[in-house]
Amino acid sequence: MTEKMVVIKQSSDLPDQLECHANLLQISQALVGQLNDNDMEAANHSIQQLCRLRESSLFQDIGKLTRRLHESLNSFSHDEKLETLMHEGLPDAKKRLDYVVQITEESAHKTLAIVENCMPMVKQITEQAQGLHNSRCTEKKSTGIKVDTDTFLLQTIKDGKLLSSYLTDVLMAQSYQDISGQIIQRVIKLVQDIETSLVAMIRTCHIEIDDNQLNHSVTKTTTTENHKYSNNALDNDESGNDKLNNHGYGPVVPGVNHSGEKMEAAFNKDNKEENKILQNQDDVDELLSTLGF
Amino acid sequence: MKILVVDDFSTMRRIVKNLLNELGFNNIVEADDGNTALPILEKGGIDFLVTDWNMPGMAGIDLLKAVRAHQELSTLPVLMVTAEAKRDQIMEAAQAGVNGYVVKPFTADTLREKVEKVFERLQGAA
């Protein structure tokens, strides 16, 4: 080994690129000299030094990446916002949505109860007016009943029928509770999934989680209705679509993707004809008629 | 005539029940999913089934299939009233032997028309 051999400076600190470049240049120049001098032993040693330098640089890069990842995970695990979101934000969101389902349900039932109370009364008044009018008609010829009474009875019959029709409209309007409830329950399921994923991620970061608190927050939330989307009952299908086994896709929401593709595509340009969402009862009837209905 | 209305939302059961009352059907029982509906059907005496699709436990489509596979219930008329509106689902329901399909939200007239149509077809077939 000659004095031309170069000692590579080893440092616990990461060498900067300039230092690395200088080392490479120094060894390469020494290698050229050694080859010119036909000193093969020294040349081989220099080549090995070049290889080691290259490896060292690679390992240092990996080291840098590992350190960054570690620091990122540490900062993630100490992110108070995330903890607050997991322990308070998400359970709160679920409770709020549950409450919306609950109050809309109570409100719909209240309206339905009023309509149910009114309907038989309207029916009775209309029928009585009709009966009275019929009997008055037969009596009128002989007794000369006042015309205004008949007018009143006819108007009552007419109004009664109209009122009955309005009450049916009020009744039907309460169906929003079913549709909105189904949509909200899907969002609740999504929030639960996010929460579960966050918990898994935080566990990976070795943060201690209070299992009691966790179980409480991830457990199915409750409303007075049964939940369509409990934690375990339903899973996404293979295609990642909204359809949950045989439990369906849920109500159509304008602007929301129901089939893993853009809604526009789902509505208009869907390549898969079977995924097409039908817009209304007429479309359904048309499809059924092609099937012999 | 005794009708079973199956839906997990009690508001929707109540709406359907009231509409059926208006049509003159006053003997109505309720269930909140396929699992609770099936024993009621198996007990006998139900002449018409109105069911939602999307319910916890047993879904409406599975209830329909169970009914069609059941020796004594196989000819029971079934009307599906659901928010599920995909082509493949409607075809699946048709293939499973549904007698009518109403998509939510629906009008009172639509339900009336479909119920009447189911019975007209049944009378025509008889």
Molecular structure report:
- The complex is a heterodimer of chains A (293) and B (126).
- Chain A has 293 residues and is mainly alpha-helical.
- Chain A has helices at residues 17-36, 40-77, 80-143, 147-173, 176-204, 211-218, 263-269, 281-290.
- In chain A, helix 1 (17-36) runs antiparallel to helix 2 (40-77) and helix 3 (80-143) packs antiparallel against helix 4.
- In chain B, strand 3 (48-51), helix 3 (60-69) and strand 4 (78-82) form a beta-alpha-beta unit.
- Chain B has a 5-stranded parallel beta sheet with strand order 2-1-3-4-5, sandwiched between helices.
- In chain B, helix 2 (34-43) runs parallel beside helix 3.
- Chain B is globular and about 30 Å long.
- Chain B has a single domain (2-125), classed as Rossmann fold, CATH 3.40.50.
Kindly list the characteristics that best describe this protein.
heterodimer, A: 293 residues, mainly alpha, 2 domains, 8 helices, rod-shaped, B: 126 residues, alpha/beta, Rossmann fold, five-stranded parallel β-sheet, 48% helix
How much of the sequence lies in strands of chain B comes to 15-25%
Name the average pLDDT of chain B: 94
Percent of sequence in beta strands of chain A: under 5%
- Separation of the first and last Cα atoms of chain B: 17 Å
Quaternary status of these chains? heterodimer
Query: Could you give the order of the helices and strands of chain B?
Result: EHEHEHEHEH
Gist of the model:
Chain A is mainly alpha-helical.
List the helices and strands and how they pair.
The complex is a heterodimer of chains A (293) and B (126).
Chain A: H1 17-36, H2 40-77, H3 80-143, H4 147-173, H5 176-204, H6 211-218, H7 263-269, H8 281-290
Helix pairs in contact in A: 1-2, 3-4, 3-5
Chain B: E1 2-6, H1 10-22, E2 27-31, H2 34-43, E3 48-51, H3 60-69, E4 78-82, H4 87-96, E5 100-103, H5 108-125
Parallel strand pairs in B: 1-2, 1-3, 3-4, 4-5
